[in-house]
Fold:
Amino acid sequence: MWQGLILCAALTLAGQGLARLPGISDSGVSPLVFALLLGIVVGNLPLGRHHDRAQPGLAFATRWLLRGGIVLFGLSLTFAQVVGLGPKVLVLDTVIITAVLISGYLIGTRVLGMDRETTLLTSAGSAICGAAAVLATESTIRSRPAAASMAVATVVLFGSLSMLIYPLMYPWLGMDEGLFGVYIGATVHEVAQVVAAGDAVGPDALANAVIVKLVRVMLLVPFLLIVGQWWLKHHAAPDSSNAKAKLVIPWFAVGFIVMVGVNSLVSLPAPLHQSLVLAGQLALTMAMAALGVNTRLERLKALGVKPFLLALILFVLLLGGGGLASIWVMG
Structure:
């Protein structure tokens, strides 16, 4: 097992280093993305037996480190942040997430003819919280690494475009700064991308954008509970028929909520809190590196351009429909 964990740790350190380089550190691109890309490069090198020796550690990273990282991610949120902007924010985020998920799944599977796994992961990444949503959904439905890698790639592409497009749109839409911040938080993919776009508009936009985005992140938990049960019922393997009646509750989703509660009610010492948050970030980055190592380029090629086309459609839906929904619900 140790060979795979050492490989993931090395890729994580390299990803962290790349994300901190001048010119890249301000771009909003997460170390998770660099770890994934480096993992894909290493995973497609002709290393033969070394891949086999690393597999136990890679499996541990994609299963246990991933789940543990999502649990510790809850320490970045508090319930006070969720209720700070009132119940309208919850309504807005719920409407947008539901619309994007349903639209994405129907368009992907029925119009574009994509497989269910890639469609669901791409839709979840666009609708909820980017790569974290892709990883959490992948862990729930046990999808192929190539499908998860492709979904993350779409999040990176269109989330990066968001950081450029939203500040340029602001002067032309006639929204006040606070409402535009709500719009950013409700429609931009990643937390880091929300921060970058909101900061480019102004302090009021940044404050509202972060809060609205954190509410979206919390809605990942009920989504996982619903999609886990739905996936088991409709897409379970033939030998799992006895499990169809069993309620599937991802323990890491429950742990996430518990950590939000701890962060809301308990004042942890600052060094301990920072250490736990950092541990969660490193665990997620190592899981992303393992996902990359297990991704083969021929499998990505087989998926074609359809995931990017679906992500583009959802990006346009978020830009247009998300803006109208923000004005309608919050106006």
Summary: The first helix runs from residue 2 to 19.
